[in-house]
Structure formats: structure tokens, C-alpha cells
């Protein structure tokens, strides 16, 4: 067995695991930024086909520049956290988005990062990033031909989150060089990356569907303007031709009117043609101002005047043509027919134009929500309620009478002109009025059954009780194969050989000058077998491995919400959703001591007093005080919702977490004090052993009028250290992950943070002098000591994590699937993992609690969804049982190793 093979088999240290995970997180974020930058380049190339795209091009360039700055700042932050994994980037090596193109066409200088672009400017950069996104959305929405709701929604959501993060980070401006704030900024990269991925996908869809749609609409408008220009040009030629017949006839009124109308028609037609070409050019130009930035009169002149001038030209030409029949001496019949036809066509043209203008005006005013008929009916109803209604009715009657008279004259004139015999082509006109008969018949609908509405209603689901799950008690005691001792002996011999080789490797590493490899787990923490004294180090590890289910208790009929051992180790209290709390007597066989029945509400938590003589049970709006014998001494009602209860180490009072306040209550329910921990919605609190400080966890609360996180983003959490005596917040640390609970060790300044989806973290509470305060008063500061890691994927953690062992030397947490992980508190090494058995119901854990009263035997309990409580314990050292004895579990190889260590041989 070579040394190189053994060196490759050495496990990676915890620092290397965390560094690799953090560096991988940043590199994934950097790839997302690069993907969005690439998509923005494709977007700018595709949008050049669209007219009036200079605003979009400019905003996309600014957006890419901002992405470069954001990427630079996040790289600097990650390089501070993981200097061995992530290298810093020189400012001169930063890419400039399309610098050559922008210098050649737009005259914009190259991207230059400011010298003061430090970590404390990150909130301002995020705020500017939100403004750049808003500018990009506004420029994109200025194209009237297409509106992409997915892009608007994704970018608006990202904009809101950026403003929210900028607001939260602004409170830590002086702490951007602290590892805690840097870690919070680094933890924001997954959420920012998710937003970037969403924008990248929507931009890709916009390139595929939006740009062709906008291009089609603009081509359609261009073709309309081109057709309008062609008609205006042809009409100008016709008007000019007719002017040749009338321009010589002057001197009397009719001839002058004819020339006036036709010259006016020629002017309007030429103006229509010229304005059509102007609008055609305006729509094709890329580098022009978008529509909202152009004055209203310019837009009206470009868009509306071609059609208006053409209509006026036709009206003037028709009027001149009608007068020309009289001025040129045409017959009466000809003059009359031309007059009637001109009146009819002019009336139709005026009616259609009025209808078109009013419909467009109404649709623009009501944004397409109302039609012309609805607006007219509303206007009529409004007029009916006023004094104008009578005048309107009289005017309407007068107009109706005049229209009827005119209709009679027109009918007589038509009967005089048109022959009696109608052509055959006019006969089929009556036919469509008789054809719609088959359409009036309603088609049969045999598939719709209105008489049975209950058939479409969802059926109620069958109620399933949680307590109906049957659990089987597994047989206690090991059942190993007959050659177990032989295998253990061979594995111990191999382990001793590996340890010896490791010692040689460490000796060689120390002799090398400036050895860079000092990140191995064995370089930081000594091997248990080679430590002195060996028994004290190896004994807890072996005892942890000997933990097994010693008893199963099926007292509850529903989910076990919380459990806790009494400080003296005599009792175990549990709470369940069956509205009962049970006190068990701890012993070789757990027995039910008292059942505490609660008439109303669910019991979410139980809490033993420091002396173990009183028990608190927490309900939604009340706290009950019980004696160890199960006697209810007091029921304390609270108006606000009680989130969690915590005993003070003195045992004379307890704390009730209610919203943003922590209320101090005595055992009679009297409010002794109230502590405000800032704008946070508290989740959990813990008290230091000296009763001087509170460490609270909560979600930050922002003003309702301020920026709020989107549904995709997580609310910022904070870890707050509050001084009870001075009533000041001494320090606060932002937190990105979802937090479940907090615990403080009894004999060390260690704070354990439990996460919703992740392994726990251990923070160190340091007390130091505050130079900014008078007299250099003491203050506190939180520093992350280490994050506990697992070899495999992280299971969903249930319930708060806890300290274990008599001296809180362990950290344990339970996974929902049934895995129970136990770490060393100081070294963060995973000591043992208890896997769930294949017995039905062993998984689905809900809570866990350790018995701190003794280490002989070690003991903890777990609660399950089916109401079962399982007790894990080891055999005591003085046990006479061969199966449960701790000494009998040791192999002969281990005894020889321990003896050699003690004897110094």
C-alpha cells in the first residue's frame, strides 16, 4: 500500500468542503451572469431590425455595464470569503460591453470602474441596478406593437427584490468587511441567479416571438403608409388633370369656387403624399426618439395628417366636381345626379371618418375595455339624468323629421332615375335574409347536464387519522453475525496501520519548507487513538455508536410536537396535537407519570424550569404552569400570539416571545418587563447563562410603503444580540436562509442556529470593548465558527437542533426521513449517524431532545408523526448484561491499544 494511494484516500477537511461549496455557488452565479450578458447581446442584435430601438439598445448597454460591476463586486466579496478558491479580478481585465461598436456609432466612452467601488457601495449599486432594469422595461414597453407580460413580470419582480436587498443592506454599511455580512451577500447569489435565469429565458422567448411580431406590425404600418402615399400621388395627378379643364374659366363665382376646391384638393393630396413618405421614413429609422418622448403635435402630424389630408383632398375634389357640373353648363339631370352622388359619398365618408375617430378615441381613453355603443349608452344615460335630456330629445325629433323628409325626396328621385325593371343581379340580395333559418336552430347539446350539478362537485376526501398507523416494536438488542469480532479485529488492525502512515505523512509535511497543504482534517484534529489519554477521547465516540432504541412509547394519538427532559433527568415531558401533554418517569422502563389534558388549543411546546420542579406548556394564546406532579398551578392568558417560551436561568421568571416583543413574566402572570428587539418578527430567542443578553432570531419587517420582497425571494432574517441591562441592540447579523430555532450552550459562549433546509451552524458570542461608547463599555459580537456538514445530501431538518451530552459537547439534529446526526461541537466532525430501520413508522421524525443529566447512559428521545416516542440509550458501564454492556462491546484489539497508550509502550 503506497503513500500516494493513502493520501488520495484521506478525507477532505471541513474548511475545504465549505470552501468548495461556496466557490461552486459563486461560479454558478457567474455563469448565470454570463448567460444573461450573452442573451442581451443576442437581444440587441435582434432588436436592431425594429424601428425606434435606440432606447432599447442604450438601456441594454447600460444593463450590461451594470452586470459587469455587480459581477466584479460579488467576486471581490467571494474572494474575501474563499481566498484559496476564488482569485480577484483586475479592473483592467473587465470586459466592456460592445465598446468598439459604441465608440464608433454612439460615441460612448469605454467602461471604467470607479476607484471608490468598494464593498460599502453595494447597496447603491443594487439600487442603480433596479433603476437600469426599470429603464429597460420602460423602453421595451414604448414599442406599441407588442407587450410581453412575462418579461414585465419577471423584471418587475427582480426590480422589487433588488430594492428590498438594497434597503436591508443599507443598515450594515459599516459591516461589509465582516465575514457575517459577506456571507449574507454571498448567500444572495442563488436568488439573484434565479431572477437572472428567468430574465434570460423571457428574453429568449421575446427574441423568438416578440421581435417577429413587432417587425410584422411595423411592416404592416409601413405598407399602409405606402399605399396611402400611392393613392395620394395618383389622386394628385387626377386633380392636376382636372385643373387643366377649369383653370381657364374665371370671372364668375362658380368657376372660382371650382378652382378653389380643386387647388385645395391638390394641396391636400400632395401634403398627404409627402407626410406619408415622412411617416414611412420615421418608422424605419432606428436611431430616433421613442413615441412617448416625442411632442404630441409631432406625433399627430406624423401619424394622423396623411389620412386626414387625403380625406380633405377627396372632399374638396368632390365639392369642386359637383360645382363644375353647374359651371360648365351640364344638363339638369347630370347636375342633379352628380349632386346627389356627391352628397351621399361625402355623407358616407364623413360618417365613417367620425365613427373611426370616435371609436379610436374611446378605445384609447378606456384602454380597450369599452366599445363605442357602451360609451354612447353611458353618455345617453348620463344626459337623461340632467336637464339636457329634454333638449336632446327635441333636437333628436327635429333631426329625425328632417331626415325622414330628405329620405322621401331621395326615394322619389331614385324612382324617377332608376327604371321599373330591376336587373336580375339584384334579386339574390333578398336571399340572405331567408337563409339564416338553419342557424337560428340551437345545436343539440347532449353532453351538458344542467339538471345534475352535484356530478361536477368535488367529492369530499375520506378522513384519515394520523393515529391509525400501526407501529411495531422492534426487538431490542444487537443481532450481529457470528464473525463480528473477527471483522472488528481486522478493521482495527487496518486502522492502526493507516494511522501510522498518516503520522509518517505529517512528519514529512513538517520537514518540507513552506508546505501549502494544511487543510487536512488530520492536521487540525488529532486522531482519537493517538491522543492522550485515549480512553477519554474514544469512549464517547464508541458510546454514541452504541446508541440504539431501548423503548417505544405509544401514548399519544397524534403528532408529537415537542419533548424535553427535565434538567435533573427524572422526567420526560411531551406535547402532542391530541391536546395532551404527558410526563414520563425516566428509568430502565419509561412509565407514564402524569397526563396533562388541555381543553382548548394545541400544545406547541413544553419547558422545564432550571430546577426541574415546574413545567410550562405553551398554547396559542396562553401559558400553563404545572408542577412535576401534574398539578396546574396557573393559567396565564395572553392577548397576542405566543411564539415560544424560554425560562430565565434563575428560574424565577420566563420569557414569552410575542411578535416583535419579548415579554418577561413571573409565575403568576405579572408582566415584569418588555424588550423590543427592533423591526423583526421574532421566531425564537435564547438567554445567556448570566442573564445579561438575549439572542433572538427573526424576520425583518419593512415599512408597508417601502420595497417588499417578491414571492420568489426570501425575507431577510436577522440574528440580534440584545443587552437586557442597557436595552440596546449590541450587534445584528443578516441571514438569508430560513431559520428554525436557536440554542445557547450552558458552559461556553456557543450559539447554535437551526436551519429549515440545511445543517446547523455554530456561532461564537464574543464579548469585547466598544471604543465608540464612553468608558469602553462591553459589547458583544457574533462570529460564525463553523457549519456542520454531511457526507451525503442534506435531509430536511425537523424541529430545532440541540446540544447533546452532559457538557453540551455534541450537536445533534434529526432529519425528516429518520436520520439522526451527531457532531462534535468544537471540531464539527460528524461522530455518528443513526440510520432509520426498515420498520414501518420509524421515519417521519418531528422533534428530538437530549437528556443532559447523565452520560452514563447516554440518552435522547425522538417524537414521530404517528404519536410514537422512541428512546435511544446506551448501556451503563456497570451493567452486568453481556448484550448491553459497554465494556463487552470493545474488541481485544481496542483493549490492547488502550493499554499500550496508558503504559506508554
Automatic annotation (TrEMBL):
The name this protein goes by in its record: WD40-repeat-containing domain protein
Gene3D superfamilies on file: YVTN repeat-like/Quinoprotein amine dehydrogenase
Pfam family, one: WD40
TM segment ranges: 225-246, 266-286, 307-326, 332-352
Source organism: Boletus edulis BED1
Repeat in keyword set: yes
GO cellular component: GID complex
PANTHER family named in the record: WD REPEAT PROTEIN 26-RELATED (PTHR22838), WD REPEAT-CONTAINING PROTEIN 26 (PTHR22838:SF0)
WD repeats by residue range: 553-594
Gene Ontology biological process terms in this record: proteasome-mediated ubiquitin-dependent protein catabolic process
InterPro entries to which the protein is assigned, alphabetical: WD40/YVTN_repeat-like_dom_sf, WD40_repeat_dom_sf, WD40_rpt, WD_repeat-ST_regulator
Keyword entries, A-Z: Membrane, Repeat, Transmembrane, Transmembrane helix, WD repeat
Claim: Transmembrane helix is one of the keywords in the record: yes
